[in-house]
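ok, trying the design again with the full structure, not the truncated one.
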């Protein structure tokens, strides 16, 4: 039986031809944010509600970014990361564009 998918908003990640999108769970303490601008409390609250509704899984689309050594840099999805941090998650699901096939 195929599990029901929950559809969420699209993050708008553009994948160049010939590249692969990878996703994995990353320890929450190995993540940093590319954008540290102020966040609206309501946006973080909505992200928390979305995470709680998806529990025990994690919502898709997930935060996207890139690797910088052993740290994952979130470029889009910082509200979801902060929500996961506030809810006590040990890992966060992330996605990135990998090398060519």
């Amino acid at each position: 039986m195929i599990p029901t998918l929950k559809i969420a908003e699209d993050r708008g990640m553009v994948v160049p031809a010939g590249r692969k999108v990878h996703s994995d769970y990353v320890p929450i303490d190995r993540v940093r944010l590319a954008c540290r601008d102020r966040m609206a409390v309501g946006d973080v609250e909505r992200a928390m509600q979305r995470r709680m509704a998806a529990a025990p899984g994690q919502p898709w689309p997930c935060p996207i970014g890139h690797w910088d050594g052993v740290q994952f840099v979130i470029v889009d999805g910082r509200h979801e990361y902060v929500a996961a941090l506030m809810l006590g998650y040990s890992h966060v699901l992330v996605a990135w564009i990998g090398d060519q096939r």
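Keeping the full-length input from now on. The mean pLDDT is 86.
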